[in-house]
Amino acid sequence: MKLEHHRVANTLGEILDAAAAGEFPPADGGTTVVPQPNPRDAGVIAFTAHSVVFTDEDPQWVRSTLAALECDALAATMHPRFLAALLDRTRRTTDTVDLLTVAGPLPGDPPLELREVADPDHPRVRRALRRRDDVRVWAADGGVLVLGRGVAGRWETAIEVDEAARHRGLGRDLARAARHLVPDGRPVWSQQAAGNARSIRAFQAAGFRPVGSEALLLAPQS
């Protein structure tokens, strides 16, 4: 199994910027280990036939733990045994392995009536602040849109649609609205749980394209 460790040239932010532009790590079966971009963000991203582990743990420990797995090298970084070992070592938790998607910005205002929620105690704001900075939340009739800076400072979005408002295209419209709201002409990222077919369909209908899978390691709440 090939492993690389880049502490200067290949930061996680550079890797994500390249992936957003359609340039991916080589599909060589390798794993690149990079430092965490900040104390909050740690995890694993699996692109096609190449993975990136972003952690401040000893890279040699990552290498030896992956090498000890009796599994296909292409699946090693997302293998439950490796993720469990990484969680134990870092004393972190995780929710799920997500599909990681990205889309470019769109000009103008979103073609959807939105009301910005300024309440810092709004449940969606509190939830988002555990993973993101500069969080903003908008409400539409039957749904909510969240935008904030997540892993390595990338802009991330999440949506929520009320059960009574489903099957009307609102999820797609909210996801597309995020492309209008993202600042500075930056791409906008989103994660969907692999089993959440509704969310996956909504984001892909809104122009988000899959780039890999991602497991985020959540730091303990203080």
Describe the model:
The structure is a single chain. The protein is of the alpha+beta class and 222 residues long. The protein has 2 domains: 3-92, no CATH class; 102-210, Aminopeptidase. The chain is built from 6 helices and 11 strands. It has helices at 12-20, 59-67, 80-90, 123-129, 170-181, 197-205; strands at 3-5, 30-34, 42-47, 50-54, 97-103, 115-117, 133-140, 143-149, 155-161, 188-193, 209-217. Strands 1-2-4-3-11-5-10-9-8-7-6 form an 11-stranded mixed beta sheet, sandwiched between helices. A hairpin with a 2-residue loop joins strand 7 (133-140) and strand 8. Helix 5 crosses helix 6. The longest helix is centred in the last third of the chain and has 12 residues, at 170-181. The model is unreliable at 1-9 (pLDDT under 50).
Q: How are strands sequenced across the largest beta sheet?
A: 1-2-4-3-11-5-10-9-8-7-6
Strands, count: 11
Structural class: alpha+beta
Give the SSE order as H and E letters. Answer: EHEEEHHEEHEEEHEHE
Per DSSP, what share of the residues sits in E-state strands of 2 or more residues? 25-35%
**Total helical segments:** 6
Determine the N-to-C terminus distance. 37 Å
CATH superfamily of the largest domain: Gcn5-related N-acetyltransferase (GNAT)
- Average of per-residue pLDDT values: 90
CATH class of the largest domain: Alpha Beta
The overall number of domains is 2
**Could you say what the CATH topology of the largest domain is called?**
Aminopeptidase
User: What characteristic shape results from the CA principal axes?
Assistant: globular
Largest sheet: 11 strands, mixed
What's the Cα radius of gyration?
18 Å
CATH architecture of the largest domain: 3-Layer(aba) Sandwich
Q: What is the share of helical residues?
A: 25-40%
